[in-house]
Design a protein that fits this description.
single chain; alpha+beta; Lipocalin; Immunoglobulin-like; 4-stranded antiparallel β-sheet; 1 helix; elongated
Length: 315
Amino acid sequence: MHASPTVADGMVFASSNTKEYYGINAMTGNTIWTFRDEAAIGFIVSSTIYKDGKLFLVDHFSIACVDAKNGHTIWNSFLGEELYVSPSYADGKLYVVTDQRSIYVLNATNGGKLGYFGTNSNSWSSPAIYEGRVYFGNNDWNVYCLAEYPALTSNVTVELTKPKVVLGESITVSGRLTPGMVNASLMVTFAKPDGAMDNIQVATLEKGAFIFSYTPDMVGNWTVAAKWQSDKGYFTSSSSSNSPLEVVEVVESTPVGYIYVIAAAVVMIVTFVVVYAYIKRMRARSRLQLSHLNELVSKRLRLRQQQAYSRNTST
């Protein structure tokens, strides 16, 4: 165990090296519940936070809120960044510093993102809260102080042409940054089903718009989000909400070209059968007509022979 335990309401909340958190009876030492995430692979080095029967903890790339009595998940907020230091709680909000140049402010009631700020380097410093301001250290040799309203609010959105594609099919990703800056650098993150991240850096066009194509390489449920890091101007940094993307296996089907070939062959066969039946019918009719003609000629020939015989006899 690397992280310090938390003690509250007759319970001790501790973590293992990876994957698991424990709720332990402080009097008996019995483990009451276990919270486990099989997908988590990083070491747990951050302590939990207890507040009013709720326990807030780092869960892989997310912050989770669980019921302190039984360990059941109340909400889970996916941030998509490596988390090592303990978050901080104040006034119904959670302040989370990541190892990938970010600090997030979350609603402690439902996990919703309330704010975001980007830095020039990563950080292993838990934030401190004092009189409405947030303080934390950073590997760029600075200590940051953030106020509640440091600058004008920015916003970034991301949209997909379709929420479901087959493996190998491309999608078009578009969005907009407000303010509508040109050549602003955004990071679009594709979170894969296995937890890996694919970060694509894009530049905005006129009025802050951006658009590009992307081809997923794995079957499963993806999420796509965009982030803009402020350049310390008049606007805050911002990140979009997650857009879901489902990638499914290719369904084998008969190629369209084969369908056309088969249809053409069927038409040819039917045409041949119809023409053959028509020719056969016409030949049968011709033979019948010829038979009738021969019979008629024979009758006339016999009649002439009888007439000639009768004239010879009478003379």
